[in-house]
Design goal:
Layout: H1 2-20, E1 23-24, E2 27-34, E3 37-40, E4 45-50, E5 57-58, E6 63-67, H2 70-95, H3 99-132, H4 137-164, H5 170-195, E7 198-200, E8 205-210, E9 217-218, E10 223-228, E11 233-240, H6 241-244, E12 252-256, E13 264-271, E14 276-277, E15 291-299, H7 301-304, E16 312-317
Antiparallel strand pairs: 1-2, 2-11, 2-16, 3-10, 4-6, 4-9, 5-8, 6-7, 8-10, 11-15, 12-13, 12-16, 13-15, 14-15
Helix pairs in contact: 2-5, 3-4
Length: 318
């Protein structure tokens, strides 16, 4: 009778220790953890639109928030006009002078050639008069000199017309082409700054918090929305030294938690290379001084959506 009375309390103590241990008969105690994603803009500005709210599930590419863009729109318009101006200047250099200017040069050349023909005709008349003794030699020399002057003038205008039809010099064209590339680079930068004022979700997930309200000033780089993609949910648990040697990344584990559906699984994704003492969150007198290894496992996306960071779970090795 006495032995039965002492056996019952002893069994109760063992059961209590087992319930507080990190490792129980049904598996290892762990908890859910999440790697949150903070969405921010590298530029500052007033929060103009906030398209999401806490607890909302969003898809990849969904608009999240937008900052005011007045300054960036003006800079983008200025950069666009600078590109157009540089393009026009480069095209003008490559074409040479304008058509009306070429027409003027052609008319001047025609006038000079007519004057040259007239001077040549006068020379022939003076030569005939000189042979007949009707004029002095000085007058013939003046006629011949006038012809040379008219011929030189016609040749000068012909060369000017050829030059007018040529494009600008190569170094001028190269310099203007460089100016055009610089204007295009500035336009690209202005467009990038404008694009940064509206932020979209890079992946699907759950919005866990919004850190600013519409109308507030957002400093550069400050997170506006915090979200948790399903792929960033992980299970963290601890196993003793005797168990860790048999674990490999990719090994399946079963998950159990209060209110969770049956059949949830996860795959081991990380095994700590160093041992540590039993974490204080695992309340156990019998394993307090034992070394354990931290293990992380990634649940399937469908299961991850039903798990919350900080939620306790029981992990069973399969």
């Amino acid at each position: 009778m006495h032995s039965k009375l002492t056996a019952i309390p002893f069994a109760f103590v063992l059961a209590s220790l087992a319930g507080c241990s990190g490792q129980s008969a049904s598996g290892y105690q762990g908890y859910v953890e999440g790697d949150f994603v903070h969405l921010a803009s590298p530029l500052g500005g007033r929060l103009e639109r906030l398209w999401v709210q806490r607890g909302q599930a969003i898809d990849a590419g969904a608009r999240v928030f937008a900052l005011d863009t007045q300054e960036e729109v003006a800079a983008r318009r200025q950069a666009d006009e600078q590109v157009k101006a540089a393009q026009s200047q480069l095209a003008d250099l490559r074409l040479g002078r304008r058509t009306p200017e070429v027409d003027v040069a052609q008319a001047q050349l025609a006038q000079a050639r007519a004057a040259q023909a007239q001077a040549a005709q006068q020379v022939r008349r003076d030569e005939a008069q000189f042979e007949a003794g009707g004029i002095a030699r000085a007058q013939l020399d003046d006629s011949r000199a006038d012809l040379e002057i008219k011929a030189a003038r016609a040749q000068e205008l012909a060369n000017q017309l050829s030059v007018a039809r040529l494009p600008a010099r190569e170094h001028q064209i190269g310099a203007q082409a460089a100016q055009l590339e610089a204007a295009r680079a500035y336009l690209s930068q202005a467009q990038w700054r404008l694009d940064q004022k509206q932020v979209s979700a890079g992946q699907a997930g759950l919005v866990t918090d919004t850190l600013f309200r519409e109308g507030e000033w957002v400093p550069p780089g400050s997170p506006v929305v915090r979200m948790l993609p399903p792929g960033n949910v992980k299970i963290r648990f601890f196993v003793p030294e005797a168990i860790v040697g048999g674990l490999q990344p990719g090994r399946k584990v079963a998950l159990q938690c209060d209110g969770c559906e049956a059949g949830m699984t996860a795959a081991v994704s990380f095994i700590a290379p160093q041992a540590e003492y039993t974490p204080p969150v695992i309340y156990s007198n019998e394993t307090r001084a034992k070394l354990v290894f931290m293990i992380e496992a990634r649940p399937a996306p469908g299961s991850a959506q039903r798990l919350n960071p900080g939620q306790p779970v029981t992990v069973t090795l399969q």
